[in-house]
Amino acid sequence: MTTDDFNKIYNTIPKDPGVYRFLNEDDTILYVGKAKNLKNRLSSYFGERKDRLFRTQLMVKNAERIEFTIVETETDALLLESSLIKEYQPRYNVMLKDDRTYSYICIKKEPFPRVFFTRRVIRDGSIYFGPYTSKVRTQIIWELLRQLFPLRTCQLNLAPENIAAGKFKVCLEYHIKNCQGPCEGFEDLASYNAKIEQIKNILKGNFGAVIQHFKGLMNAHAEKMEFEKAQAIKEKLTAFEDYQAKSTVVSSSIRDVDVFSIASDEKEAYINYLRVVNGVIIHTHTQELVVNLEEEEADLLAYTIPLIRDRFNSIAPELILPFEVQMTDKTLTTTVPKIGEKRKLLELSLKNVQYYRAQKKRDDASKTKRQSPAERILRTLQADLQMSAVPMHIECFDNSNIQGSNPVSSCVVFKNAKPSKQDYRHFKVKTVIGPNDFDTMKEVVFRRYRRLLDENQPLPQLVIIDGGKGQLSAAMESIVELGLAGKMTIIGIAKRLEEIFFPGDSVPLYINKKSESLKLIQQARNEAHRFAITFHRDQRSKNFIDTELNNIPGIGEKTAQKLLTHFGSVRKIREALASELIEVLGMAKAKVVKAYFDKEVE
């Protein structure tokens, strides 16, 4: 992928956090990366940078296109990047691959639940919060929770019957006030569970009262000039605020689900798919549909979901959808979430499909504004010839004669940089005697534009004269006589060095030999030459036939045409049998024609 390729999509890339993928021509993922700002990060791969690693340059060179997924936070981008790397193991991520798992806080399903850090999620009914990418900041929260809500840390089985039997004794944690001794019944289950509920609220982000409490403490320490204590509380507050963000790309409570959302208009629909396996998004995809009739969005989803699931081999038992959809597979569970983690997944899908549609609209709009090849060539020609208008209508003239016989001229017409053959014209020279290219050019140019003026037809923006300064000057005499000077650009092109001449200027213009504008001029010149040569050849053949048959006494023009129509050529007439001639002309005229050609043989 080149810098020019990237520049074409630059304006469509968002500044949101997200994950990007470089893919090759086979749609194989070469590299997965995360970004706080997608536009800025992707821009760093292109342009002139001498410090860019060769490995990175090679990856970009091998890439065919870029995909990206928008997420809510930089943390979400980190988590999604990790899951995609582990799922696809891209070639250029091998050395950067992160095999570690992230931390969770587990509230164990047991009497007097323990609360602890873990990197393993066990589906035993326990509640997990996370994952957390910053162990340090999470540790600050954890220490705060332990100060506010003393809990047990032992692994004893505190079943009611064991406590009643007096099997346990309090440990050091009880004596240093880190635990309130539920093992000996010093703390009842109701009060313990009340603390667990408060911890759940804080881990869910519902800790407004806690923040107000610590802000009060921080301000009190600041008033007493106890800045170190105030700073310590400020760090705890910062940890709280960072902690509130809930990941939308990794969940401890959701297992295998497929998430679908849709955005549509009158002509097109876009369906976004998030594949979640073991609580982790491992794939994102947006499918485009052409809407032929007035299909409902529910019908479009019902039709497309099985196709997408089959394409990605999904066996997820649950679908998360934006509205109710009647699925043919009745074993699937469909959910239209209003709140919670599933709702956040749906909102993430909706955000991506809406952005995809907006990006597609921008792309389509830019394509319509983008110059077509014809427009690009004509604008280049306009600039090369310093014309005031784009030469949408071009005419080119050429003469043809052999030793002065049958002089003819041609005028070919190009519109929008393409030959317009229905507008081609040829001319039999009427006023010029002998081989005189200059006078011939003067005559045909005059006749052409006198006719256009009389019929009130549009004039071309550019007129090309095949020849050097002499033919150009002759053509200009007619242009001036018709009062068209300054209304059209007139140029001459000399064959030898492809020199471009302007009226009244002895110094030729040389256009780059590889220029598209010169190639268009040459194409018009060659087409005019071809058309003139063809017409000249036809005229010579016609004159030869006319002369040959008209020499036969008693054979007029109609009889000659009758013979040519039947036999096709003079040679075949000469070789025809008497019976064949009698069949076409009758006895009398057949004898005359036969006698003429027999006499030629003698």
TrEMBL record:
It is found in: Cytoplasm. It comes from the Bacteria. InterPro entries: DisA/LigA_HHH, GIY-YIG_endonuc, GIY-YIG_endonuc_sf, GIY-YIG_UvrC_Cho, RuvA_2-like, UVR_dom_sf, UvrABC_protein_C, UvrC. Its main location: cytoplasm. CDD domains: GIY-YIG_UvrC_Cho (cd10434). The keyword Iron does not apply. GO terms for biological process: nucleotide-excision repair; SOS response. Pfam families: GIY-YIG, HHH_2, UvrC_RNaseH, UvrC_RNaseH_dom. Residues 15-94 form the GIY-YIG domain. One of its GO terms (cellular component) is cytoplasm. GO terms for molecular function: DNA binding; excinuclease ABC activity. Keywords: Cytoplasm, DNA damage, DNA excision, DNA repair, Excision nuclease, SOS response. Residues 263-479 form the UvrC family homology region profile domain. Interacts with UvrB in an incision complex. The UvrABC repair system catalyzes the recognition and processing of DNA lesions. UvrC both incises the 5' and 3' sides of the lesion. The N-terminal half is responsible for the 3' incision and the C-terminal half is responsible for the 5' incision. Belongs to the UvrC family. This is UvrABC system protein C. The gene is uvrC.
